[in-house]
Write a structure and sequence with these properties.
- The protein is mainly α and about 475 residues long.
- Among the domains are: about 175-295, Roll (CBS-domain), CATH 3.10.580; about 305-475, SLC41 divalent cation transporters, integral membrane domain (Tetracycline Repressor, domain 2, Orthogonal Bundle), CATH 1.10.357.
- About 70% of the residues lie in helices and about 5% in strands.
- The protein contains 23 helices and 5 strands.
- The strands form 2 sheets. The chain has a 3-stranded mixed sheet with strand order 1-2-3. The protein has a two-stranded antiparallel ribbon with strand order 4-5.
- Strand 1 (about 175), helix 13 and strand 2 (about 200-205) form a beta-alpha-beta unit.
- Helix 4 (about 65-70) packs across helix 6 (about 90-95), helix 20 packs antiparallel against helix 23 and helix 21 (about 380-410) packs antiparallel against helix 22.
- The longest helix is centred in the C-terminal third of the chain and has 31 residues, at about 380-410.
- It starts with a helix and ends with a helix.
């Protein structure tokens, strides 16, 4: 814990040092006349060689993930200066750690030879992760440099869908036979330079690569060395198929507290393994993507991207929101006569719409999470729908009574209080119905249930809330 805190302190301190150093030279660079060269190269020339060497030394001490954190926190020109200071043999590891948007800017600054050198430092499963962002020529050159076995592994890794177990598995694992003694296994392990990361168990296969079982490392260490692998290996285990959904596999890792697990094809052959670090990365990326789609963003956005690129990323749902805002305004316009006769309606109607939008977003959040965890099926969807209606009715009665009493105390009108109560109840019912229906409908259509759901539910509860409240007011209050 203390070591991690020290690392974070070093990272943050280096980021602050970089920011201050680059800011100090920024004005000098802007005043220069050499505008034929890229800004980051002109700015880099102003830095003292001793300063550059010190920064390079500090960067070498950091984990690739911490270097990625610094790169993502810097504007493009300053980011490229830091990127030039990173050792070439670390380029590939850091490219894997940065966000997709930042990776795009770093790759654009590298020539073909640099990209090939960076990719050649990675394992085949890591190359597959990086491949979609690399130029075709680079992938071809990297492919030529691999061994026959590595080429087969790379083809396999790139053939699986992005959200499948095959896309997350790696091929670096220890395989042993079941007919050898534990002493032989121990001697074999001692001859290795190092064990693959997250090796908590060894994978038992026959000569045809058919998967037979698992030998946990703790069993290997405490069992008599003269015993056979077949006698102590685990035959009851969790395994995955390469085509299986990665989300289901991630849920299994959480449920069974797995560190690693075998990936076995339809013929029973061991093709790879899945590890907890890949699962954690997948969960984090899925959560980031869900957060972006819920806010109406189309893709991951570089914090320091150009104005135009950011606008293009955000305009879709803003346009949708604008259309729904026009609809809401026309709903209000249809009741101009009622509002003119009873000005209190204009002050009270945002309450109905606001509470309805909040309730709808709560329902959508619950449904999207349940869909992500696979907890909703055709059998229980109807019960869930009825349950959410019950929640909406109870909330409507409670909070409708509160706002109705509020309206009475301010405007001294029991009729207005009744209208507020009824409008709140009906709008919360609308929010409950749509909060369940929108994500379920998107799931049925094969779309991401979180995609713009909050925008849609807010638009519906705004327009619906205005219509319900103003409609009831026109019926019961306006003469």
């Amino acid at each position: 814990m203390e070591q991690r805190a020290e690392t974070i302190h070093l990272r943050d301190q280096l980021l602050q040092q970089l920011t201050e150093l680059l800011r100090r030279h920024r004005r000098t660079e802007e005043a220069g006349d050499d505008h034929g060269r890229p800004p980051h190269e002109r700015l880099k020339d102003l830095l003292d060689r001793h300063e550059l060497d010190q920064l390079r030394h500090e960067l070498d001490r950091l984990h690739p993930a911490d270097v990625a954190y610094i790169l993502e926190a810097l504007p493009l020109d300053e980011r490229l200066i830091v990127w030039d200071l990173v050792k070439t043999e670390r380029d590939g590891e850091i490219l894997l750690e940065v966000s997709d948007a930042v990776r795009e800017t770093l790759i654009a600054s590298m020539d073909e030879d640099e990209l090939v050198a960076a990719a050649e430092q990675l394992d085949t499963d890591e190359i597959a992760d990086l491949a979609p962002d690399l130029p075709r020529e680079v992938i071809q050159d990297v492919f030529k440099s691999l061994s026959v076995e590595e080429r087969q592994q790379l083809r396999a890794a790139m053939s699986y869908a992005e959200d499948s177990v095959g896309a997350l598995m790696d091929f670096d694992m220890v395989e042993i036979r079941e007919d050898v003694t534990l002493e032989v296994v121990l001697r074999y392990l001692r001859r290795l330079d190092e064990l693959p990361d997250h090796t908590d168990q060894l994978f038992v296969v026959d000569r045809a690569a058919q998967f037979k079982g698992l030998l946990p490392v703790n069993r290997l260490l405490v069992s008599p060395p003269e015993g056979l692998v077949a006698d102590v290996m685990v035959r009851d285990f969790v395994q995955f198929n390469p085509s299986e959904n990665a989300q289901d596999a991630a849920a299994a890792f959480e449920r069974y507290d797995l560190v690693s697990a075998p990936v076995v094809d339809d013929d029973g052959r061991l093709v790879g393994r899945m590890t907890v670090n890949a699962v954690v990365d997948y969960i984090r990326q899925a959560q980031d993507a869900e957060m972006l789609t819920a806010g109406g963003l189309r893709e991951d956005e570089d914090l320091f991207a150009s104005v135009w690129k950011s606008v293009k990323n955000r305009w879709t749902w803003l346009a949708v929101n604008l259309v729904t805002a026009f609809i809401a305004s026309r709903v209000i316009g249809a009741f101009e006569h009622s509002i003119a006769q009873l000005v209190a309606l204009a002050a009270l109607m945002p309450i109905i719409a606001g509470i309805g939008g909040n309730s709808g977003n709560q329902t959508i959040t619950m449904i999207v999470r349940a869909l992500a965890l696979g907890q909703i099926s055709g059998d229980n969807a109807r019960k869930l729908f009825i349950k959410e209606l019950g929640v909406s009715v109870l909330n409507g009665v409670i909070w409708g009574s509160v706002v109705g009493l509020f309206a009475f105390l301010i405007y001294h009108s029991w009729a207005l209080g009744f209208v507020m109560t009824a409008a709140m109840l009906l709008n919360l019912l609308l929010a409950g119905v749509m909060g369940v229906s929108i994500p379920l409908l998107m799931e049925k259509l094969g779309r991401d249930p979180a995609l713009g759901s909050s925008v849609l539910i807010t638009a519906i509860t705004d327009s619906g809330g205005f219509f319900i409240f103003l409609g009831l007011a026109t019926l019961f209050l306006v003469r």
